[in-house]
Write a structure and sequence with these properties.
Largest sheet: 2 strands, antiparallel
Number of helices: 9
Structural class: mainly alpha
Helix content: 55-70%
Order of helices and strands: HHHHHHHEEHH
Radius of gyration: 23 Å
Strand order of the largest sheet: 1-2
Length: 206
């Protein structure tokens, strides 16, 4: 089997992990928005803008798809020990591509399960609504919903129980398992059979 020589990547090119070291993680923005005292609609608008910015950043770091799907560079690992070597090199290099593929797989599975998707979107909105009510609680710490008095803790508990029961009866575990299986399978198979053609440090967990 012909071997493909290692090529040194462009020195100006940066990997997603290097880019992330210089940019603030969107997770921080999400946490600040959700925990803020803004009205729910304002939070949704801010979450939308942060998500769009994160997607644009992800697309900007995506490797060319012609390189990602180059069939000439697919081959069986030379040995069992070659598998982790390939995975540790391909995952940081094609990190953004793998994330986008996982998002596509996740979106497809959620689209064919519309009731589950809609309900899972309503649950976070319910928590945001309860938080908004809690900000306007009376002097006793109670809020009023449907002309009945509740404490925020009671509402959070009720909504959490409803969320868990609905997740169970809508086969949420099967859907989540399918998402992880397909996304992880696509990423793992590509990283395993795609021969690395660059010479850079392998990815190591901190």
């Amino acid at each position: 089997m012909a071997t493909v020589p290692f090529m040194k990547p462009n020195e100006n090119a940066s990997t997603p992990f290097k880019d992330n070291a210089n940019n603030n993680s969107p997770t921080t923005s999400y946490a600040k928005i959700i925990s803020s005292n803004d009205p729910p609609l304002v939070k949704l608008r801010e979450l939308y803008h942060v998500s769009v910015g994160s997607l644009k950043s992800l697309f900007s770091r995506t490797r060319p798809w012609e390189e990602f799907f180059n069939r000439a560079l697919f081959s069986f690992p030379a040995s069992v020990s070659d598998i982790p070597n390939r995975i540790s090199r391909n995952i940081p290099y094609f990190y953004s591509n793998y994330i986008l593929l996982s998002l596509v797989c996740c979106s497809y599975i959620l689209l064919i399960n519309p009731l589950f998707t809609l309900w899972m979107l309503l649950i976070p909105l319910g928590f945001l609504y309860i938080r908004n009510l809690a900000l306007h609680a009376d002097s006793t710490g109670q809020v009023y919903l449907w002309n009945r008095a509740f404490t925020p803790i009671q509402l959070y508990t009720i909504l959490s129980i409803v969320a868990l029961l609905s997740f169970y009866f809508m086969n949420g575990m099967n859907i989540v398992f399918l998402i992880l299986l397909i996304s992880g399978g696509v990423t793992g198979l590509h990283a395993m059979f795609r021969q690395p053609v660059f010479d850079e440090p392998t990815f190591q967990l901190p």
